Amino acid sequence: xxxxxxxxxxxxxxxxxxxxxxxxxxxxxxxxxxxxxxxxxxxxxxxxxxxxxxxxxxxxxxxxxxxxxxxxxxxxxxxxxxxxxxxxxxxxxxxxxxxxxxxxxxxxxxxxxxxxxxxxxxxxxxxxxxxxxxxxxxxxxxxxxxxxxxxxxxxxxxxxxxxxxxxxxxxxxxxxxxxx
Length: 180
Known about the structure:
Elements: H1 13-35, H2 44-57, H3 59-64, H4 68-98, H5 107-111, H6 114-122, H7 128-138, H8 144-151, H9 155-179
Helix pairs in contact: 1-2, 1-4, 2-4, 4-9, 7-9, 8-9
């Protein structure tokens, strides 16, 4: 991201100049701050870029703030915590599956890029609809209400489908482990 990326948004010339100035002034410091918060350091720039997008969306509040840089730091902190929360949800699912009879799957194996390992290792074990729902909930951070809207189902139906998909996945992983 660079300051010319702000030109794509509907900003006045004054706003564009203001955002470019604050961007140039504190982008690197915000990235360094984000690196101290996020679990995966590669996400730090994404977090800061997301914070600037939020800043543009809420430009009135940001510009009227008595401390716009502090406002951005707080936004970076909140975005980073949300990203961490999503990662924890995925790790929790992986640990639940691994706690079964999956003796061959040590925790060390899951600590290296668990998202990629999970998605690539198990995506063929469930029906496509069940897999997509499970991924949206655990990996993409959708709430049950958002899933219900996306898939045109009731919230309780989404909860049940996620639970069934998780149980089916755990059972199939157990079967795979017993075969080896």
